[in-house]
Amino acid sequence: MLELPLTFVQRPAASTTPRPWLLVLMHGVGSNEQDLFALSPQISERFYVLCLRAPHRMGPGSFAWFDFSIEPGGARSINESQEAASRTLVAQTVESAAQQLGIPPERVVVGGFSQGGAMALSMLLTRPELMGAAVVWHGRLVPQVLPHAAAADALHGRKLWVSHGTHDDVIPVASAQAICHHFETLPVPVTYREFPSAHEIRPSELAATVAWLEALSTTPTAF
């Protein structure tokens, strides 16, 4: 049984998998670890799926990685100490889980939806040595994280999936496009897809992501 800093649910990889991968997923604001875990039946059993619960309780079954507010002009301000503390906890959790499972960083994927996607992106930028790839569903780049970003050279060999809904009225699609723009100067290949959806992961988006993960896990990787 895994012992980790954050509450989690898990679906082990198939016992017949010779070189399993680890997929760590993080939910959005107001949800919990069961949310993205519902997607696990669609994910290859080559992956050990680990879904984390954010540390900040908003209400019964409702959690967040950090508090934020939206200003009248649309700008977002965040609780920077909460974000930093959550990022540290996620890093500790990812590193510990990989070590306990005997899975090397190049076979670790960190992903999330909405604020969880923002966390996954922040992890890739600040702690790339812990993972081989990241998945960002309907997320955004948190600018307060950029001063803590690793050197560009540390990102070599990593890969990034970004997908978003063209009708997302919670986090606009421009936020996803801004992620791609940021990575234009970084040595990380980005797979970017838009879907005719709102703030949700529809079956077509999940299927495309799963296909990307499948290709990732069947292609030799090297840092």
What does this structure look like?
This protein has a 7-stranded mixed β-sheet with strand order 1-3-2-8-9-10-11, with helices on both faces. The mean pLDDT is 95. The chain has helices spanning 34-37, 80-101, 115-126, 173-183, 203-217; strands at residues 8-11, 21-26, 47-52, 56-59, 62-64, 68-70, 76-78, 108-113, 133-137, 159-165, 190-195. The chain has one domain (8-217): Rossmann fold (3-Layer(aba) Sandwich). It has 223 residues and is of the alpha/beta class.
In short:
This protein has 223 residues and is an alpha/beta fold. It contains five helices and eleven strands. The radius of gyration is 16 Å and the shape is globular.
Index terms:
5 helices, two-stranded antiparallel ribbon, 11 strands, globular, 223 residues, seven-stranded mixed sheet, alpha/beta, Rossmann fold
